[in-house]
């Protein structure tokens, strides 16, 4: 009994601590992710998608169904372990346990998915602008639930917005 208590307490503590640093874990719905990809951005094998705050890995699993390569960046080590297990058979999916604001995108990055905290959106957009400048081409952003200030959405589908984020140093 005490062991079960400590395991639950540690898991709860990890989830509470990650909330201090960013958005809480609220997963996107599988069907909605697929519809968003179909309606907003035609993902293909030529794409590398990065999910900023990749939770349990469901966005990476959906991206794989369209043949795209994917990278998940997640702060919560428990979710990293779960998502690595869920994507273990997907060769083109990698997950890193780190703060996405400190992550430099690979040059092949074409699209970023984010379902974060509205308050973080300006900083997230700024980070993508800097990464676009570093890799030398614009990056598409699929944002779930939150708009990107200073940008006009190229397309919208329900609570999803597609933006083309330009290179800004
Ligand atoms: C709302 S959930 C979205 C999960 C997944 N992308 C989805 O759509 O199902 C946001 C996730 O971002 C993670 N997160 C928040 N801030 C982060 C940061 N600075 N770096 C890495 N992950 C972060 C949280 O731990 C949480 O799992």
Describe what this molecule looks like in 3D.
With 169 residues, the protein is α/β, with parallel strands linked by helices. The protein has a single domain (2-165), classed as Rossmann fold, CATH 3.40.50.150. The chain is built from 5 helices and 7 strands. It has a 7-stranded mixed β-sheet. Helix 2 (30-40) packs across helix 3. It starts with a helix and ends with a strand. It binds S-adenosylmethionine. S-adenosylmethionine (SAM) is lined by residues 18, 21-23, 25-28, 51, 53-55, 58-59, 73-76, 79, 99-101, 115-116.
CATH architecture: 3-Layer(aba) Sandwich
User: What's the shape?
Assistant: globular
Classify the secondary structure makeup into a structural class: alpha/beta
Order of helices and strands: HHEHEHEEHEEE
CATH homologous superfamily designation: Vaccinia Virus protein VP39
- The tally of beta strands, per DSSP, is 7
Labels describing this entry:
169 residues; alpha/beta; Rossmann fold; 7-stranded mixed sheet; binds S-adenosylmethionine
């Amino acid at each position: 009994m005490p062991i079960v208590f400590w395991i639950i307490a540690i898991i709860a503590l990890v989830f509470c601590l990650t909330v201090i640093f960013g958005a809480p874990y609220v997963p996107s719905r599988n069907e909605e992710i697929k519809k968003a990809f179909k309606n907003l951005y035609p993902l293909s094998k030529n794409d590398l998608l990065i999910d900023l705050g990749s939770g349990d890995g469901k966005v990476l699993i959906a991206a794989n169904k369209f043949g795209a390569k994917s990278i998940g960046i997640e702060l919560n080590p428990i979710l990293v372990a779960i998502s690595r297990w869920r994507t273990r058979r997907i060769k083109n999916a990698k997950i890193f346990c780190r703060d996405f604001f400190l992550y430099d995108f690979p040059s092949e990055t074409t699209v970023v998915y984010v379902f974060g905290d509205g308050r973080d959106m300006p900083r997230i957009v700024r980070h993508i602008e800097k990464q676009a400048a570093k890799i030398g081409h614009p990056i598409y952003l699929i944002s779930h639930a939150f708009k990107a200030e200073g940008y006009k959405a190229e397309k919208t589908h329900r609570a999803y917005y597609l933006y083309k984020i330009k290179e800004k140093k």
